[in-house]
Amino acid sequence: MDPSVSYFVSERVGVDAALRPYRGVTLSGGGEYDIAQGWWGSAEGTLAYAAPNGRFSAAAAVRRYRPHFDLWTIWGAFAPVPYTAIDASLAVTPIRHLELRASVERYSFANAEAATPTVNVESDGWRFSWNAAYTLPPRWTVRGGYHAEFGPGASSRGFEGGVTYSPAEFLTVAVHGGMLDRPLELRFDESSVRMYGAYVQYRWSSQVRVELDASRYDEDRKRPDAAAFTWDQLRVSARVVFVFASRAELRGLPPAVLQMPRSPGSAP
Questions:
Q1: How many other CB atoms sit within 10 Å of the CB of residue 34?
Q2: Does one domain contain both 102 and 173?
Q3: Digit-coded pLDDT (tens) for 159-205
Q4: pTM here?
Q5: Is residue 215 within 8 Å of 235, Cβ to Cβ?
Q6: Which domain holds residue 149?
Q7: Contact between residue 105 and residue 87 where contact means Cβ atoms under 8 Å apart
Q8: Which residues contact 96 (CB under 8 A, 6 or more apart)?
Q9: Which residues does 253 contact at the CB level (< 8 Å), separation at least 6?
Q10: Residue 61 pLDDT greater than 90, yes or no
Q11: One domain for residues 104 and 152
Q12: Is there a single domain that holds both residue 27 and residue 94?
């Protein structure tokens, strides 16, 4: 119900469940049904394992995503098709202070039942990534990674990495960089971006910290006409973060609250 006008904006019902048959093994899943539209919406199922020593974890999942629109919009009349994805992830700590992560996903869209006699468009794709982080106690951390995605309309691939140094408990300094290439399937202006920057965090106390970030973006758009342009820019940000509670102080809250997404850089 929209409280401002007392009108229905959606009619859905859903269910979620989690089963832990053995130590470290979790089987979870759920789905939703759109009563107003008369179709099944998004659903997912995951099988995950985490070793008791914390040095190994793996997960495999199947999910189906269908866009949802409020009843008062016209977008629902276009009957957006869902896509189904199968993905797997792995995290390993082979030696002390070294952490390796990898993930892969394959996805495909349902048949849109739209005729395109003059062009063939892909309806499936895949993506994968790997990341590595090595900590040199007590002050240094080196990380790097690669990701690639190939799918309908556009693809992307790129590297990222950085070095973090903590000269004192209250101060953290980091430099980071990355690159991204994005070939486009149906357009001329393919782009390449290079990014590099620095980050400083000062912890005034256990509940207050100040963060400064400056990053430079250099972009090149490959377009064979006068519309080609660059998107070079400098981004600078400053913020103050107040921590009202830590994870240990949140015990007893409902699981749905604890699983809410957090912004990058927020306290664990």
A1: 20
A2: no
A3: 999 999 999 889 999 999 999 988 776 666 678 889 999 999 999 99
A4: 0.74
A5: yes
A6: 137-268
A7: yes
A8: none
A9: none
A10: yes
A11: no
A12: yes
